[in-house]
Amino acid sequence: TGATDESKVDEALAKVIKGRIVQAKPVEKDCMVLSYLPDWDHGDVDNIGVANNDGGVRILIDLPKIPTDDAAKPERTFVLAIYSRKTDSKPSPGVIQAYEIEAEWPEPTSWKTQPRMATKPAAKFEFIAGDGWKLFDVTALVKEQAKEKRSGFGVQLRFEKEDRSGATDDWSGYQFVSREGEGEWSGRRPVLLVVEPTK
Fold first, then answer.
1. Dihedral angle at the C-alpha atoms of 40, 44, 46, 49, nearest 10 degrees?
2. Using one digit for the tens of pLDDT, what is the confidence trace for 32-78?
3. pLDDT given at position 8
């Protein structure tokens, strides 16, 4: 499994990827925003999360730039991989949606200062119980941006419904390692994987 951009692919991640990893591009910007702490804007902490409680916990991730020629290769797929060090799973958590971010944003972003988002999700993902790597295929979005030659500002991950409660403990969510992950987590920071079929 090859990796570039000074990023070494975690062994556990390599095992769950179907195909050959051509590149592993580190995420350059990420942050978490919380509905119940609307002014909280700490993009420099070692954790980010997405959860469906109390109006929502969402994450913003700026996807690394993909050259147009690379994005256009039909056999290539692009997978955002984020490591959940703690997964809380309750019945019927619902799906996670990825919304395209449509404007520039600083890493210290709060719920109140979230950038403009697309009105419809670019992709939907099943919530998967258990700790470890979680995969979000963003191929369609990467290829669409390249085809239309428009700038990308990343994606926001959020639950479709954010109506569970921290007080009643019926919520689900991922506690992810952020790009500032240190120590044992430094090899499990978010990465965008460029994948090709195994020949």
1. 40
2. 999 999 999 999 999 999 999 999 999 999 999 999 889 989 999 99
3. 77
